[in-house]
User: Fold this.
Amino acid sequence: MISLPLTTERLVIAMMRPHHAASFVVYRNHPDIARYQDWTVPFTAEMAERMMGDQSALDGPTGDEWVQLAIELRAGEPTGIAIGDVAVGIHDSGRQATIGYSISTGEQGKGYATEAVAAVIDLLFGEAGIHRIAASIDPQNVASRRVLDKLGFRFEGRSPLSVFVRGEWVDDDRFAVLEPEWTSKVTPTDGRG
Assistant:
């Protein structure tokens, strides 16, 4: 079992719960965030409540379920305000995982995505015994590409017109990192090094 919450120097990463819904809905609907994602827009409070209800019995990522982990600023006590999230899907009988991440526009450029994703990767390779972690991004999402580059993800290729997003086919860039690649390099959990 995976232990949550995670804490880093500046963040708390925990299961997304109903008290995160309001902040989650706000940044999911921001045009600068939603344009690189395939979720439904507008993303409603009902959608957030359904998502959080579906994972209410879970304490962390498990097999065959995508979960949303809330990223909160570490302020001594939990704030209940998600400044972003890390999505985790474990598959292939618990041997592989796929991740995604979003950070609210007001908190971008501060290294929070790198810090949070690094902590989740440490957990997946350490406690969960994952062999490979994959991520895919819109090729135009330069900031997300920087996060993956900083974390040592390898570019595996572009799938042209392979993802259907809001009525059009778009390209998808694919990345991955293997457990031996991750553990052989120095990767500070705070993601800023």
Observations:
- The CA atoms of residues 102 and 117 lie 10 Å apart.
- The helical segments are 21-29, 31-34, 45-54, 112-126, 142-150, 179-184.
